[in-house]
Every structure is written in C-alpha cells, then in structure tokens.
C-alpha cells in the first residue's frame, strides 16, 4: 500500500533481517589521509542543541498534502511554508536544488548539497551539506566529552587546548569534525550520517561572532526517539537554513 508523505516521515529506516551489513563489528575506525583534512583543526568543543529544536522546525515549516500518495519519499514533491513566501520578499523566482556528489576544486567534495538559485541560475546560498559515511563510524561516546552548555563552553574550550589534539572530541569524531570544518566558510549547516546515526554541526553562531560556539546534535533511531526519525530530522536540517534565508531576505 502506498504511503503518504506525512506517514513516511514517521517511519524509521529499514533495519530488519533483510538488511545485511558487510561490516559486522561495532566500531569502524575512520580517519583521512587527505592533506587538507589532516591540516584542519578539529573542533575543540560544541554546545549541545537538543533534538526538540528540530522537532519544532519540522512541525512549523511543513504544509503536508496527506492525500498525495507515494511509495518513495525521495521522489515526492513536498512543500515548505517558507518557500511560499519567497515572491513576497524577492523579485525573482527561487529554486531549491538538491545535488549529489561532485568535486569542488581545492575544497572537499560533498555527498549531498542543498542550494538556492535565482531565476537566472545564480547561486544565492548553499543551505546545507550532508556527508554520507560508511556504517558504524558515528558514535555518541566520541562526541560526548566535548559536549557543552552555553555556560561552560569557555571552560571546555580552555580544557581542550590542554589536550594533545587540542580537542575534547575522541577517535572518529576528531576526524569527522576536521572534514566537516572544511565546509563551514561557505555553509553553516553540515551533517554526517552513517545509516545508524547522524551528527549535525551548526556554525551559525560562529559565523555571526568570532567567539560564537558551534552547536552539535547527535541522533540515532535506536530506542525511544519521541517521534523523531532520520527523515524528519533531515527535513528540519534543510528547512532551518531556508527559513534563515527568508528572514534575511525580508529585512533587505
């Protein structure tokens, strides 16, 4: 039976016996030999951003058409309320494009990128980037030591500077933050995903203030998720920078 778009966002990714993973271990080591990644500084610490933030974004920025049916969510057309207001603030029709892997010259390649273009095809903004990793690479315990609150973030940064790698991140998280860090100049919202877990890096505050913290969110579909799924989280991940663009555009 076909699934509505709304229903598809409530469904977790398949993990039944029909899904067979080649890697049978619990932890797959990840590191990079690319010079630009090796030379990049790892994130020292981050301020935790709760998953409830993305729950609210998903709930407030969708205009579902429940009667529209589809078997594959990725092929569906869905509507973001903020996109309906673009013409009010901008004289041009805007196009949101999701592109897959390509090489971007000296910068690191991305796996999936959402970009906003003008009617003439000019790039207006790179909204979000998703790096898709091999399975069993993203682990909560690698990020937890660097997790901070707004209040203790300066203390955590000072503590990190005393570590050998100048970061409180551990193991794979160090290399993931190095790789993601190469995108932050041109894009404030970058995530890594390995089928089992996702970690979202938000550089918005860092871009607005030189000493602003990077925010981080870890999510896994295992256990109780209070209705959040990877599909819903990914939607909110892209909707947020799109909404920010709308706000900036309305103020010009």
From TrEMBL:
Originating species: Aspergillus ellipticus CBS 707.79
Superkingdom per UniProt: Eukaryota
Protein name: Uncharacterized protein
């Amino acid at each position: 039976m076909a699934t509505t778009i709304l229903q598809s966002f409530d469904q977790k990714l398949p993990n039944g016996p029909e899904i067979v993973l080649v890697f049978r271990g619990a932890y797959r080591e990840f590191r990079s030999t690319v010079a630009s990644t090796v030379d990049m500084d790892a994130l020292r610490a981050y301020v935790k951003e709760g998953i409830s933030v993305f729950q609210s974004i998903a709930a407030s920025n969708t205009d579902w058409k429940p009667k529209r049916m589809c078997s594959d969510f990725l092929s569906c057309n869905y509507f973001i309320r903020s996109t309906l207001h673009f013409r009010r603030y901008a004289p041009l029709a805007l196009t949101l494009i999701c592109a897959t892997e390509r090489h971007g010259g000296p910068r690191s390649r991305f796996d999936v990128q959402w970009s906003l273009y003008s009617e003439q095809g000019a790039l207006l903004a790179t909204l979000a980037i998703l790096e898709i990793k091999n399975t069993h690479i993203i682990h909560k315990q690698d990020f937890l030591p660097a997790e901070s609150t707004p209040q203790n973030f300066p203390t955590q940064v000072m503590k990190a500077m005393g570590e050998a790698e100048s970061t409180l991140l551990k193991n794979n998280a160090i290399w993931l933050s190095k790789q993601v860090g190469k995108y932050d100049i041109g894009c404030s919202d970058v995530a890594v995903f390995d089928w089992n877990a996702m970690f979202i890096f938000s550089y918005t505050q860092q871009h607005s203030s030189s000493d602003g913290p990077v925010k981080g969110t870890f999510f896994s579909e295992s256990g109780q998720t209070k209705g959040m799924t990877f599909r819903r989280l990914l939607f909110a991940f892209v909707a947020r920078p799109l909404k920010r663009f709308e706000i900036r555009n309305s103020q010009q």
